[in-house]
Amino acid sequence: MKHTTFTNLRNLVLGALMLAASSVFAQEQKPYAKNGFYLGIAAPRNEIAGSFDGETVLTGGGELIAVPKVASSFGLGVLVGGRTGQSALEVGYLRSRHNVTFLEAPGKADYHVLNFDARYYLTAKSAAQPFVLLGATLDWLIVEEGSVSETEVGDATFQGGGFYAGGGLAIYLHPRVSISGEAAYRLIGYGGEHSVKGVMNEWTGISNEDFSGGGMSFALGVRVTF
Predict the structure, then answer these.
(1) 32-225: CATH number
(2) Which of 86, 133, 149, 192 can bridge 63 by disulfide, Cβ–Cβ 3.0-4.6 Å?
(3) Residue 179 and residue 141: Cα distance in Å, rounded?
């Protein structure tokens, strides 16, 4: 009888210890995502809206510059960043080619974007990790044959900068490898003294201080931590 009581007591104590150890382990579980430097690639879909209406003409310096309407388009990009815990800093260069129209005449444009952002992951202890992001951006839109002078036709380049905010979801296939989807709204202004240049190849400002671009941006990405 005493042996049975002792055995039951021992099993009860061992069970309680195992339960306590399991609880402590769960609380101290290491983050699923690996900290460190990472590289990645992205497939963005960029939208350029705002003042790009397909009807406005900028004048000055002996040339005319058409402001086209720009269709959304997919592109490619490269990413460089670093993560620690639930935070990450990232730099990305993205490029996309777009169909444009001016007074219904078709054309082409190349869009270059340089992003700098901070990301905060709402959790680091599971494979699925939602996040929010906030960043600054520089962009260049190069419109083929978008400028004309009395003797020449050439490209027009719009240069701007601004901010963006958004969020997304990263899924870690491995602590070092993740795939992600994200959406952000980008607000870009073109009010600087070096906002546009045309066939004369001289930077100039845009007199309309409210001239703006940007719009929604969506992207799929793959990142590998080293």
Answers:
(1) 2.40.160.20
(2) 149
(3) 28
